[in-house]
Amino acid sequence: AVTAAPAEPTATVTNIAHRGASAYAPENTLDAVRLGAEMQADLVEIDVQRTKDEKLVVIHDTTLSRTTDVEQKFPARAPWRVSDFTLEEIRTLDAGSWKDPRYTGAVVPTFSEVLDELERTASGLLLEAKAPELYPGIAERIAGELQQRPQWMQPDPMAQHLVVQSFNWDFIRHFHGLLPSVQVGVLGAPTTDQLAEVATYSNQVNPHHSAATPEYVAAVHEHGMRINPYTVNDPALMRTLIANRVDGIISDRPDVLREEIRNA
Ligand code: G3P
Ligand code: CA
User: Which residue numbers are catalytic?
Assistant: First the structure.
């Protein structure tokens, strides 16, 4: 059997803006994506789901309630699932004012619009397929949209310009089969006994920060994978994780993280 070479220690830590720069702008909107890029995040993380009419949209929850005014606009449509609304209906919703009145009028973006936005910046993309088990065929749909855009399909697997991740590890295994040149990551923390199997299809393990002990980070590296814990907003915790030799950190505050990386 071939054993994967340990990953090289990372020269610098990847700065990943969680749901965009979501501490400051409404999560998963174009404003948050743009701000993450302006704060020089290496990657902007977004959550991708699918509408009733099979359009890919960028939103975290599987319902529209928390981050839009859907309950006011469509009171009879409980439980307000993303999958029960057309894109045209979703585009009537305000996805910004829940965060701050100055973002009133922000909309739930399509995946394509986020790609358009990122293509105007130096930042790459950490795409989370959120609850893909609710959306049969979404892996093929995401792969198809990416393949139409050559700049996201660079052949260099170490480019780290595009990473696809999910809590659904079967989805990641399947996506890896569809587009083997694209880096992928499992969300969560496989046991050390599971790491060898995960490493047969995944390039990254992205756990809650509480799992990223020095020993666990070393075990992930021994299996040739990178580790980018989430969601880290406290500077002291950022410093601890950098000392633990993580490869990247997912944060709502990419500006704060940038300073900690610079000073490490
Ligand atoms: O990128 C990691 C993180 O986004 C996973 O958790 O709930 O924020 O999607 P969640
Ligand atoms: Ca996410």
Answer: 18, 60
Which pLDDT score is estimated for 151? 87
User: How remote is the C-alpha of 68 from its chain's centroid?
Assistant: 20
* pLDDT on residue 4: 44
**Nearest ligand for residue 228 CA:** 1
Domain 14-263, CATH homologous superfamily name and number:
Phosphatidylinositol (PI) phosphodiesterase (3.20.20.190)
Residues 6+ apart with CB under 8 A from 76: none
Q: Where are the domains positioned within the chain? A: 14-263
Q: How far is CA 148 from each of CA 58, 112, 120, 151, rounded to the nearest angstrom? A: 18, 11, 17, 9
CA–centroid distance, 230 to ligand 2, in Å, is 9
Mean pLDDT by runs of 10 across the 264 residues of the chain is 43 94 98 98 98 98 98 98 98 98 98 97 97 98 95 72 97 97 96 98 98 98 98 98 98 98 96
Please tell me the distance from the alpha carbon of residue 37 to that of residue 123, in angstroms, as a whole number. Answer: 6
Task: Output the CA angle 249-251-256, nearest 5 degrees.
Answer: 95
Radius of gyration of the chain (CA): 18
Question: Does any ligand 1 atom lie closer than 6 A to the CB of residue 250?
Answer: yes
